[in-house]
Amino acid sequence: MMNSLVLFTLALLLGTSAAEQCGRQAGNALCPNSLCCSQHGWCGSTDQYCGNGCQSQCRPGGSTTTPSGGDVGSIITQNIFNQLLKYSNDGRCQSNGFYRYDAFITAARSFGGFGTTGDVNTRKRELAAFLGQTSHETTDGPYAWGYCFVRENNRLTYCTSNQWPCPAGRQYYGRGPIQLTHHSVIVGQWSPSDADRSANRVPGYGVITNIINGGLECGHGRDDRVENRIGFYKRYCDILGLSYGNNLDCNSQRPFA
């Protein structure tokens, strides 16, 4: 499970930007989980995939229902997704049209443990935590402007090594929401060790921030970046009708590294 959300993030991106997934464009491959293969070689479950031109695993007349990623689709519907990521399809955002609901659900279907562990409130909390952290990494403002960017804004800073310089004409920079791990923390399956407890690392949203960027954001009192992550998380919890839980910040937690 530790690596599932890393892969989930990659799958979310693959749902919108990678090479074709199925059909004649991909060696006649079938889509996973009985998804339809569209005429253009993409996997999904709506009319644009299952209707005219569908290549395989098609449903007569296409699908007229909202796609479901197990419990994820029942919690985050298209309407809720649009509320959570209110401006991701706004022309003022670099990401305009990149982060799609169908891609999100397809990615969720690929990893059965994502958003499906525990009772409904635990599942909601995991989804709110995932989107809260990734929204901070892609934000253009608090707290409705998550998923506004696709690429790192400062794209030249990663070609600074004299030993491993970038080839001519190439750049290396962050892309996508984030590579997020440790789903066990937010669903209540992680127990702190004695070393964790002595470092004030306790279960909750705050320790996820510590895992992601604790060396810069945690252990030195209030940090605006931590507060930004919390702000997104709280907004998403409010939309999902969920309490916030405890230990939201990492202000007094010693970083992991």
UniProtKB/TrEMBL annotation:
The residues forming a coiled coil are none
Entry annotated with the keyword Membrane? no
Which Gene Ontology terms describe the biological processes this protein takes part in?
Answer: carbohydrate metabolic process; cell wall macromolecule catabolic process; chitin catabolic process; defense response to fungus
Instruction: Report the catalytic activity.
Output: Random endo-hydrolysis of N-acetyl-beta-D-glucosaminide (1->4)-beta-linkages in chitin and chitodextrins
Q: Which domain of life is it from?
A: Eukaryota
Q: What is its EC number?
A: 3.2.1.14
Q: Which cysteines are joined by disulfide bonds?
A: C22-C37, C31-C43, C36-C50, C54-C58, C93-C148, C159-C166, C218-C250
Q: Name one GO molecular function term.
A: chitinase activity
Stored InterPro entries: Chitin-bd_1, Chitin-binding_1_CS, Endochitinase-like_sf, Glyco_hydro_19, Glyco_hydro_19_cat, Lysozyme-like_dom_sf
Q: Which residues form the active site?
A: E137 (proton donor)
Q: Where is the Chitin-binding type-1 domain?
A: 19-60
Q: Name one Pfam family in it.
A: Chitin_bind_1
Q: Does the keyword Hydrolase apply?
A: yes
Q: Which SUPFAM superfamilies match?
A: Lysozyme-like, Plant lectins/antimicrobial peptides
Signal sequence extent: 1-19
Q: Which UniProt keywords apply?
A: Carbohydrate metabolism, Chitin degradation, Chitin-binding, Disulfide bond, Glycosidase, Hydrolase, Polysaccharide degradation, Signal
Gene3D superfamilies cross-referenced by the UniProt entry: 1.10.530.10, Endochitinase-like
Q: Which family does it belong to?
A: Belongs to the glycosyl hydrolase 19 family. Chitinase class I subfamily.
Q: What is this protein called?
A: chitinase
Instruction: Give the species.
Output: Erythroxylum novogranatense
